[in-house]
Design a protein that fits this description.
Helix content is about 35%, strand content about 20%. It has about 325 residues and is an alpha/beta fold. The protein has two domains: about 5-125 and about 310-325, ATPase, nucleotide binding domain (Nucleotidyltransferase, domain 5, 2-Layer Sandwich), CATH 3.30.420; about 130-310, Nucleotidyltransferase, domain 5, CATH 3.30.420. Helix 7 crosses helix 8. The chain is globular and about 65 Å long. The chain starts with a strand and ends in a 6-residue tail after the last helix. The chain binds zinc ion. Zinc ion binds near residues 168, 181, 183 and 188.
Length: about 325
Amino acid sequence: MEEKILSFDVTLTGAMIGVVDETGNLIFGEKVQADYVNLDRPQIIASLKENALRLLEKYNLTLDEITRVAADVSGFIDHSMGIVKWIPLLSNFTEWNLKADLAKAFPGKETFVLNDGFAAALGEFWAGSGVQYDSILFYTLDSTVNGAIISHGKLTIGSRGFAGAFGHGLNIGHSNVPCVCGLKGCLSTICSEQGIFKFIMDEFKNNPSHPAAFYFNNVDLEKLDSGVIYDIYKKNNEPNEIYDLVKSALWPVLKHMAIMFMAIDPDAIIFSGSIARMDDLLIHLIKDALKELTFERFTENSIVEQAILGPTAAMIGAGYFALNDGMVD
Ligand SMILES: [Zn+2]
């Protein structure tokens, strides 16, 4: 029987729901809005099922045609058991056996649960910018930071399941900024999109004659985003002052990439998320950081690429995870 995987990319504000076939093709994928922060578990499951059935019908598919069901969520997951161990600030997700609840909602289907960063990485690896590589280091740079390691075709899950949780811990930037997880200086806080704007605003506030401030004179700093920074950088012929400013803002995550690059020796670093709107500026920053922090002879041909699947990556990757039996041998 031809495989069709029903995929849920669950976020706090709803879910992307889709069906992936065995070649990595997304047959359909749609965003459904819901307030999963304030719903209890039976309500979340009911919402996922109701919307899935509605969309299957809309796209002329039946539940009988679905062979497997996969869901990805943020946070720390026990991937072998399919249990969501902990998502900071989301008590209704703590120690949730989501795999079992999905199995009850979709009887007869094998169910799988994985971290959303893993899912996005697997999607790009299977059907996106990572297809030609065997080993990739993947970063999601968005309102949080997340990532994954795929080495020689295998997702590195880790013994506890959080091998790619790049967003929390370590305090690489030696920062005092608290994170929702309880630690300080986490990449998810200081190198998220909001984190880097706060960094830039603080730089200009603390030093009104900052060499890059001139370029932002006519910009409402409250409305700053990665696209705006990139536009200003391009319109002004790529001034070093903006390059250096963004480099300082992103330095902790750039350093993290260099550490991981040395540890894993991947074919490519692939990044996605809203900060990816900085496009070639970000590629230059990553390549220069690798050059500065590691051995040039290893990094001179390093490949740094932007992800191409956008918000559909996680649904596709969750499908890949399910198709490969949860990536277990
Ligand atoms: Zn944290």
